[in-house]
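Input structure tokens:
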């Protein structure tokens, strides 16, 4: 599956990645957990996860993402599910595969295994948690953090994903851990960068609070054997600013999947009245602009839910 995707992108093709996982499950009445976000749903709502994948596939997406962003061992242990780390990550892959077999048996759909540094607390530094009232989380050593990341990568590879999508929202150090520990799984690595624009500064910077520019941060990984780069979990404006920077450094597959800058994805309950920084009607035009700017894969993150994809493929074709 992956090689066919690469060949398509080499021929100036484009691809659609699916949209939000957690906020889409939330919209389907799955409660989010304040410590492990959507990972608990693997234990409590597997049928809904499969249905979510099928609905994205029915919209014509070319890449679907496993619900494993927050399912590393250090996120499951506070829930008392640490002993199910292998089973739940396997389940996530199987649910996505089953959806692919049912909804897109004759299409080339790539399966991306999500891994993140979500929930890591090492030496007093933690990945910013968006979730309130999280359970107490034990601080772990760097060695244990790396082991957990490697464990998850090996499970996802063994279960059959086509690539590993390393979704880095926090520090450059944590991204190095992810790349270093996941490379041994033997799969293509796509490395994600959460970018932001600070007031009065048009330089895209990495993470929530670091002073590292995207140019410097991305530059640190050019010798790491990456197969793809992604700008994700960033506002539309920050994504606009990040694309030319990324393209000036990285010549391979470039994906973007922004967030809708909503307020409700920090909460365990659904709220249909929140405002977003982009509407479903606006999204096709934005995607078209990004494709014209050198992006090859467009999808969505928090708040860019299923409704953004219902007519997206048709609108882009038009």
């Amino acid at each position: 599956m992956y090689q066919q995707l690469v060949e398509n992108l080499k021929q100036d093709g484009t691809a659609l990645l699916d949209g939000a996982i957690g906020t889409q499950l939330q919209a389907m009445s799955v409660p989010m957990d304040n410590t492990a976000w959507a990972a608990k749903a693997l234990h409590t709502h597997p049928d809904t996860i499969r249905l979510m994948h099928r609905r994205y596939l029915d919209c014509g997406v070319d890449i679907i993402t496993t619900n494993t962003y927050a399912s590393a061992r250090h996120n499951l242990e506070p829930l008392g599910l640490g002993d199910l780390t292998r089973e739940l990550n396997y389940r996530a892959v199987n649910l996505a595969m089953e959806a692919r077999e049912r909804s897109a048996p004759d299409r080339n759909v790539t399966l991306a295994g999500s891994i993140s540094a979500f929930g890591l607390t090492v030496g007093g530094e933690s990945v910013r948690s968006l979730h309130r009232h999280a359970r107490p989380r034990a601080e772990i050593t760097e060695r244990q953090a790396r082991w957990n990341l490697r464990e998850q990568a090996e499970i996802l590879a063994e279960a059959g994903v086509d690539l590993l999508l390393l979704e880095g929202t926090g520090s450059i150090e944590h991204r190095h851990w992810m790349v270093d520990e996941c490379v041994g799984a033997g799969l293509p690595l796509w490395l994600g960068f959460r970018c932001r624009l600070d007031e009065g500064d048009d330089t895209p910077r990495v993470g929530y609070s670091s002073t590292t520019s995207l140019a410097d941060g991305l530059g640190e990984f050019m010798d790491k054997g990456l197969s793809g780069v992604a700008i994700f979990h960033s506002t539309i404006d920050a994504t606009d600013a990040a694309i030319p920077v990324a393209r000036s450094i990285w010549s391979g597959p470039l994906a973007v999947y922004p967030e809708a800058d909503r307020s409700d994805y920090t909460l365990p309950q659904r709220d249909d009245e929140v405002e977003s920084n982009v509407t479903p009607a606006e999204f096709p035009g934005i995607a078209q602009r990004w494709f014209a700017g050198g992006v090859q894969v467009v999808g969505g993150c928090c708040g860019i839910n299923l409704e953004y994809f219902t007519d997206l493929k048709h609108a882009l074709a038009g």
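The mean pLDDT is 91. The first helix runs from residue 2 to 10.
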